[in-house]
Write a sequence for this structure.
């Protein structure tokens, strides 16, 4: 037992101290933080400038219709286009020119600027013009715009999820889909990344002949489990650091670099995003609180606990198989032929993910979330939509049985393979190894 | 240690064919043979890394068990250490796997690192060291837990002559401390002076086995090297049926000749013949080197195969 601890310690320390680990641990959260912060920052920069717009309106339709906005001011001018244009541009202002149209309806306008005008300016001008033109057209057809407004209907569909105890919870599919994909892909990514590390490590020990030196003091099973557990701890460490560092980076950016009011911008951005995704075009704050309610509807305790469980379980299941592959080949390059059948279920799970997310409670989804080879990914995708506890429990149990089985299976191949050289390994050969007696 | 009737067959060739050998306790034993003769396979069997098809290995009179393996120090031909790890860390790790406590390991490592003057490598990565340097580290790691049986597979392959001598001295020292030592090598000259017993494996068979002086006696050709001064030719003085001159050359002032004694003649007979005519300066027996014996046996062996 003591020796397994030694092996775990070595595997853990040598990996954690590697440059690649440190770089990954820092770069991951930086990317995450950047992904969250960059859009906010960019729109802040773009809309940060005060724009003054001179309006030269030959139609007279839009006089006094453009109202001063947060970052846009309007003033109205009359006269010749060329002189007004140069006057405005010299002052660093923009000039909006609405020419007299041939068909009496002004649908074309020109915006002159010395530098690229912000999106917010263009969007505001367009929306005001569109509104006015539409209203005038309706009136020309004898329709009161008020009537149209009254007949406009907004459908607010709120899904209410009822759990076993009869408690009701508002639910929102978009947020859950996001969570489902994120959780499923993270598990997939972690299993592959750290499973491959186990395989590489085993293959290295074999080609180094270090096994021959160690095997006199350690049993093959100890060596294999030590490596698997050591790498698992590395994975958990990396995950924890990612979560913590992502928050730290976001915090640092918000408070330090961008100044105090940035936080509110982020918040309003989040509100806008929430509005867009929630499909509710009403009040921002209301929509935001709605998202909050939905997030509350996902059982985070279950979510986090299952994530850790499926991460560990799925990893144990696959990494022992990866270890067996590493032990069976002479060189890392030979692993390809065995990689495919082992990774097939994982790839299948990812490919099925869209089907599962559309119908999380279909028989197909339930089956995949029970089979240990796919359950870590599929069940994580189902959980945000709510899964009965008995199903989670059963899936847990099956996963434990699954990795006990694969570990047993892998250990049998490992103990023969790790000491075998110069043999081209086929599936028939592996079958023979399985039946060797100690 | 004794191995009896070991046979090991790989898919299409026999690596070992009923090999029996005995390594006396506290001896320095040379396991010799050309490349591919089966030496490494035999060593792997002794280490329980591979299992023999038939035959058994005994240690101290009882069949080999897992516990015995802990008392064996094995240094594979090359590698056998983690390339990416630092030297000191790695040595401590391997020592602790062998059951030493951390403090014990440190103490012994310090002793050996000082003794081989490699203390300054402690914090360097193994991959930065040359092959010979790596092998020194490997050597220390192998002997650190003071095993009763030490097995070295081609231990001198990466070393320059100076380090070969250092290593030989250390091995003698370990032998004096009570360890039994097995060498495996195809380089006869390197083990000639250090081994007291040898076994020669060729073509998967044990072709020659025994105490080194006995073997040399068995293969000696009764040839003597004579350094002398003389006006006359030796061939005129010596009877051809009793003495054969195999080599003759002129040194600066003297002559040298290799003379093989035939048909029971002795050195005294030879001297009696020569003394009246020749001034004898030196005479000494030419013993066959292990290399000569090796080549002779291997050649004879391959003739008998044809």
């Amino acid at each position: 037992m003591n020796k397994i601890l030694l092996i775990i310690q070595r595997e853990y320390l040598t990996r954690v101290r590697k440059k690649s680990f440190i770089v990954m641990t820092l770069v991951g959260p930086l990317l995450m933080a950047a992904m969250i912060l960059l859009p906010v920052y960019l729109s802040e920069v773009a809309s940060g400038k005060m724009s003054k717009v001179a309006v030269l309106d030959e139609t007279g339709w839009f006089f006094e219709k453009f109202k001063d906005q947060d970052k846009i001011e309007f003033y109205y001018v009359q006269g010749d286009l060329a002189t007004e244009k140069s006057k405005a541009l010299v002052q660093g202002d923009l000039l909006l020119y609405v020419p007299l149209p041939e068909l009496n309806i002004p649908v074309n306008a020109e915006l002159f600027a010395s530098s690229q005008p912000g999106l917010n300016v263009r969007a505001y001008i367009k929306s005001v013009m569109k509104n006015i033109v539409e209203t005038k057209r309706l009136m020309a057809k004898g329709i009161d715009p008020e009537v149209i407004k009254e007949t406009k209907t907004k459908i607010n569909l709120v899904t209410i999820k009822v759990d076993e105890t009869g408690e009701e919870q508002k639910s929102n599919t978009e947020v859950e889909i996001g969570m489902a994909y994120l959780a499923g892909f993270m598990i997939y990514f972690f299993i592959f990344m750290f499973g491959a590390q186990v395989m590489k490590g085993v293959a290295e020990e074999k080609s180094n002949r270090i096994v021959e030196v160690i095997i006199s003091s350690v049993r093959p099973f100890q060596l294999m489990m030590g490596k698997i557990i050591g790498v698992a701890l590395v994975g958990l460490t990396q995950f924890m650091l990612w979560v913590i560092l992502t928050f730290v980076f976001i915090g640092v950016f918000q408070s330090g670099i961008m100044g105090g009011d940035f936080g509110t911008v982020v918040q309003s951005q989040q509100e806008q995003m929430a509005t867009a995704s929630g499909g509710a075009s009403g009040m921002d704050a209301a929509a935001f609180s709605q998202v909050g309610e939905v997030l509350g509807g996902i059982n985070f305790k279950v979510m986090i606990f299952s994530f850790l469980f499926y991460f560990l379980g799925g990893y144990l299941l696959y990494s022992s198989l990866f270890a067996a592959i590493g032990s069976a080949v002479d060189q890392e390059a030979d692993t390809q032929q065995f990689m495919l059948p082992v990774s097939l279920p994982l790839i299948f799970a990812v490919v099925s993910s869209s089907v599962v997310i559309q119908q999380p409670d279909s028989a197909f989804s339930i089956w995949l979330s029970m089979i240990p080879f796919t359950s870590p990914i599929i069940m994580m995708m189902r959980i945000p939509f709510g899964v009965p506890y008995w199903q989670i429990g059963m899936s847990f149990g099956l996963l434990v049985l699954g990795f006990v089985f694969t570990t047993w299976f892998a250990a049998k191949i490992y103990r023969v393979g790790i000491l075998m050289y110069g043999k081209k390994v086929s599936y028939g050969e592996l079958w023979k190894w399985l039946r060797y007696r100690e | 240690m004794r191995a009896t009737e070991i046979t090991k067959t790989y898919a299409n060739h026999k690596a070992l064919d009923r090999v029996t050998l005995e390594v006396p306790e506290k001896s320095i034993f040379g396991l010799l043979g050309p490349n591919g003769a089966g030496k490494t396979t035999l060593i792997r069997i002794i280490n329980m890394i591979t299992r023999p098809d038939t035959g058994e290995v005994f240690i101290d009179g009882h069949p080999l068990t897992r516990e015995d393996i802990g008392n064996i120090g094995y240094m594979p031909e090359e590698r056998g250490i983690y390339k990416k790890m630092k030297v000191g860390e790695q040595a401590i790790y391997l020592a602790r796997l062998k059951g030493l406590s951390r403090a014990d390991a440190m103490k012994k490592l310090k002793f050996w690192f000082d003794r081989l003057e490699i203390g300054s490598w402690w914090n360097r990565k193994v991959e930065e060291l040359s092959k010979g340097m790596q092998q020194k580290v490997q050597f220390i790691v192998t002997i650190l837990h003071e095993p009763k049986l030490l097995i070295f597979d081609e231990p001198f392959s990466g070393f320059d002559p100076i380090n070969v001598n250092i290593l030989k001295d250390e091995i003698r020292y370990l032998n004096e401390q009570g360890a039994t030592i097995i060498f495996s090598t195809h380089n006869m000259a390197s083990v000639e002076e250090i081994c007291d017993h040898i076994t020669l494996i060729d073509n998967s068979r044990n072709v020659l086995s025994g105490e080194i002086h006995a073997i040399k006696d068995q293969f000696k050709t009764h040839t003597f090297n004579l350094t002398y001064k003389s006006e006359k030719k030796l061939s005129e003085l010596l009877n051809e049926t009793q003495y054969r001159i195999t080599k003759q050359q002129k040194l600066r002032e003297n002559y040298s000749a290799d003379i093989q004694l035939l048909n029971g003649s002795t050195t005294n007979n030879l001297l009696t013949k020569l003394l009246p005519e020749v001034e004898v300066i030196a005479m000494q027996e030419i013993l066959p080197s292990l290399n000569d014996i090796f080549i002779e046996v291997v050649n004879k062996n391959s003739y008998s195969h044809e």
Residues 259-288 of chain A have pLDDT under 50 and may be disordered. Residues 61 and 132 of chain A are 8 Å apart (CA to CA). Chain A is about 65% helix and 5% strand.
